Amino acid sequence: MMQKNGQDNMSDDKSIRVKVIEVTRWAPTLLSFKVTRPDGFKFTAGQFVRLGIHGKDLQYFAQNHDAKLITSETQGDEAQGHEAQGHEAQDKPIDLDGYVFRPYSVASSPYDEFIEFFSVVIPEGEFTSKVNHIQVGDSLLLNTTPFGYLTLARYQLPLPNDLWLLATGTGLAPFLSILKTIDVWQQYQRIILVYSARTSQELAYQAQISSIKSIYGDNGAAFVFLPIVTREADYAGEKARIPNLILSGKLTELVGQKLDKERSHVMLCGNPQMVEDTKEALKSIGLTMNRRGEGNIAVENYW
Ligand SMILES: Cc1cc2nc3c(=O)[nH]c(=O)nc-3n(C[C@H](O)[C@H](O)[C@H](O)COP(=O)(O)OP(=O)(O)OC[C@H]3O[C@@H](n4cnc5c(N)ncnc54)[C@H](O)[C@@H]3O)c2cc1C
Ligand SMILES: NC(=O)c1ccc[n+]([C@@H]2O[C@H](COP(=O)([O-])OP(=O)(O)OC[C@H]3O[C@@H](n4cnc5c(N)ncnc54)[C@H](OP(=O)(O)O)[C@@H]3O)[C@@H](O)[C@H]2O)c1
């Protein structure tokens, strides 16, 4: 049975094996990876899927004897190690025993031939302690039912004018996907991306964010990007948390645009306490939660 926030250790339907084709490491506890996109797999920018991982599908655990000592599931797995991956017959059901599933936002564009994910590493985390070791050629399970309503379609009123995308950490992922669609640049007049990380090393995707408008939104909405680094005393840019920037009025000053009940759509994604504090800050200046299409604020909590 699925637990809070879609976490569980089983997946009951539509799990397909996908292959890791690229891994990018941003920092010791932060990485992105691309996997093959199954034929016919569709999603809307902003949605998430459920990924399944098992040590036996990762070369690291199949080859590293020390690693086997710290993961009980790899014991006695030699016969079905990574060499076996990817060779299942198309019609053979996948044995899900021992797989750990977690929800992950898609960071890539719906137009891309691959699917990209952006992941934190929690050293003691059941899922990410394994993801930390993925390499090109490894495999994961992808549950091909996409979930979630952090999508542009949820907004009806107010009409699209300004889109504020406020993220902490890996909460950036769904916003990257949204920004990698042509629609968003055509629908809005202004798009503001605010992205808060603990350190400048953990501010991932900087080069991609710099070029995103010229690739997807040439001649489209005006774009403002505000990176925030909260735990580096000598960081030259903005260091305050997102809710504080809203309450002090500094956010609208830095961006040069008001947060406004009549014209702002605001999406929040990442740390649940940030989501909660930011919601309260936005409500205190008159914005409302989006319900049945109406209202300003839409959210996604990551844990
Ligand atoms: C809708 C949805 C979408 C998600 N999308 C992503 C995504 O794109 N990328 C991603 O890395 N995670 C994402 N997550 C979180 C992800 O599902 C797992 O929680 C995460 O992979 C950690 O799994 P774990 O088993 O290692 O540790 P867990 O036992 O799941 O988590 C342990 C603790 O780690 C912390 N934590 C969990 N996730 C994060 C995170 N992303 N950033 C910082 N701290 C965290 C929390 O304190 C949590 O209690 C998403 C969660 C939800 C509900
Ligand atoms: N990032 C690391 O160095 C590191 C290292 C090892 C393990 N981990 C694991 O990863 C998890 C944290 O990952 P993370 O750094 O990506 O996520 P995070 O703790 O959510 O921090 C990401 C950003 O969100 C900000 N933030 C946190 N709470 C907020 C709030 N209430 N309002 C506004 N902003 C808020 C942080 O600011 P503040 O800095 O002000 O909190 C930071 O800028 C931890 O649970 C830990 O187990 C992280």
From TrEMBL:
<dbReference type="InterPro" id="IPR039261">
    <property type="entry name" value="FNR_nucleotide-bd"/>
</dbReference>
<comment type="similarity">
    <text>Belongs to the ferredoxin--NADP reductase type 1 family.</text>
</comment>
<protein>
    <recommendedName>
        <fullName>ferredoxin--NADP(+) reductase</fullName>
        <ecNumber>1.18.1.2</ecNumber>
    </recommendedName>
</protein>
<dbReference type="InterPro" id="IPR017927">
    <property type="entry name" value="FAD-bd_FR_type"/>
</dbReference>
<dbReference type="InterPro" id="IPR017938">
    <property type="entry name" value="Riboflavin_synthase-like_b-brl"/>
</dbReference>
<keyword id="KW-0560">Oxidoreductase</keyword>
<dbReference type="InterPro" id="IPR033892">
    <property type="entry name" value="FNR_bac"/>
</dbReference>
<dbReference type="InterPro" id="IPR051930">
    <property type="entry name" value="FNR_type-1"/>
</dbReference>
<dbReference type="GO" id="GO:0000166">
    <property type="term" value="F:nucleotide binding"/>
</dbReference>
<dbReference type="InterPro" id="IPR001709">
    <property type="entry name" value="Flavoprot_Pyr_Nucl_cyt_Rdtase"/>
</dbReference>
<feature type="domain" description="FAD-binding FR-type">
    <location>
        <begin position="13"/>
        <end position="153"/>
    </location>
</feature>
<keyword id="KW-0547">Nucleotide-binding</keyword>
<dbReference type="InterPro" id="IPR001433">
    <property type="entry name" value="OxRdtase_FAD/NAD-bd"/>
</dbReference>
<dbReference type="Pfam" id="PF00175">
    <property type="entry name" value="NAD_binding_1"/>
</dbReference>
<dbReference type="GO" id="GO:0034599">
    <property type="term" value="P:cellular response to oxidative stress"/>
</dbReference>
<dbReference type="GO" id="GO:0004324">
    <property type="term" value="F:ferredoxin-NADP+ reductase activity"/>
</dbReference>
<dbReference type="GO" id="GO:0042167">
    <property type="term" value="P:heme catabolic process"/>
</dbReference>
